[in-house]
């Protein structure tokens, strides 16, 4: 990677000084024109309305990795340390669906997204980051889950190509972003390496896809987000004022506003660490979907 050019201050807005310990899982909810994201280690869920900039925080009973909107019911499906759950807010209610890993007691769900057919794809990881016990799961609208891939150190991502035929999924511990062929019925095949991060890039973390098929990846310990073309070539990078950005998402009615989450864990000396940022990425997001169950 060439030397990282400074990013104009006007291109980045420090949107919410939430000081998340481990901010993650940003998702745009078109029902409310709002952004949701979590603080995994802080056990909190945050919401930012895009028009009024209203900020709301809910405390959770345990570590929460993500929430994803439901298409036909109110609320969300959430990924807790204990497994999948249906979540509603105001008042807060949690209905447990089940754990895909009852035999992996130290694992937790870490990151997830919904594909074009309304299925959730969710990764897991060892909470101590010592074992390669993470896996990739598919949660169908019937609430049946299937283990689709295994052996991850830190499962991250995932994201999909605009046509829905490719799934990208990351093992942050190995610095590898994988690419899979994804069939309409939810089968995976043709696993291959999409991007292998160099040491100086940091670690690939959460990611999203733009309307042209570019894959935007947050660089944990790399202080940037980068866009990679569909063939895995580095296209451009945007420097950030925090060293541990964690994920990114396109939001807004036109999907032309990018938001980036970050972490303060291990970076207590960085004044902006753990904040939420809005970045002028010069791109529009691929369509996002809600869970069909």
TrEMBL record:
One of its GO terms (molecular function) is gluconolactonase activity. Gene3D superfamilies: TolB, C-terminal domain. A divalent metal cation binds at residues 24, 156, 205. Its EC number is 3.1.1.15. Residues 22-264 form the SMP-30/Gluconolactonase/LRE-like region domain. One of its GO terms (biological process) is L-ascorbic acid biosynthetic process. The keyword DNA damage does not apply. Substrate binds at residues 108, 110, 128. Keywords: Hydrolase, Metal-binding, Zinc. InterPro entries: 6-blade_b-propeller_TolB-like, SGL, SMP-30. It is an enzyme of class 3 (hydrolase). Binds 1 divalent metal cation per subunit. The active site is at residue 205. Pfam families: SGL. Its cofactor is Zn(2+). Belongs to the SMP-30/CGR1 family. This is L-arabinolactonase. It comes from Terricaulis silvestris. The gene is araB_2.
């Amino acid at each position: 990677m060439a030397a990282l050019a400074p990013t104009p201050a006007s291109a980045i807005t420090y949107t919410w000084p939430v000081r998340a310990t481990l901010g993650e899982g940003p998702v745009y909810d078109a029902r409310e024109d709002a952004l949701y994201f979590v603080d995994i280690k802080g056990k909190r869920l945050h919401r930012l309305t895009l028009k009024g900039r209203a900020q709301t925080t809910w405390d959770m009973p345990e570590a929460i990795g993500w929430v994803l909107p439901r298409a036909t019911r109110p609320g969300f499906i959430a990924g807790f340390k204990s497994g999948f759950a249906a979540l509603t807010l105001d008042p807060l209610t949690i209905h447990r669906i089940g754990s895909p890993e009852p035999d992996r007691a130290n694992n937790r769900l870490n990151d997830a997204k919904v594909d074009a057919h309304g299925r959730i794809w969710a990764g897991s990881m060892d909470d101590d980051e010592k074992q390669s016990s993470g896996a990739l799961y598919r949660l169908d609208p019937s609430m049946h889950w299937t283990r689709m891939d295994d052996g991850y150190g830190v499962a991250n991502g995932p994201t999909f190509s605009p046509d829905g035929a490719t799934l990208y999924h990351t093992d942050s511990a190995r610095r590898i972003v994988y690419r899979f062929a994804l069939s309409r019925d939810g089968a995976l095949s043709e696993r291959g390496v999409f991007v292998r991060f160099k040491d100086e890039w940091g670690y690939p973390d959460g990611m999203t896809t733009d309307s042209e098929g570019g894959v935007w990846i947050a660089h944990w310990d790399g202080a940037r987000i980068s866009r990679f073309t569909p063939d895995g070539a580095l296209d451009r990078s945007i420097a950030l004022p925090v060293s541990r950005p964690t994920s990114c998402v396109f939001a807004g009615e036109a999907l032309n506003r990018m938001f980036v989450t970050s972490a303060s864990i291990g970076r207590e000396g960085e004044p902006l660490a753990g904040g939420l940022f809005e970045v002028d990425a010069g791109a529009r997001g691929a369509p996002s979907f809600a869970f069909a169950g």
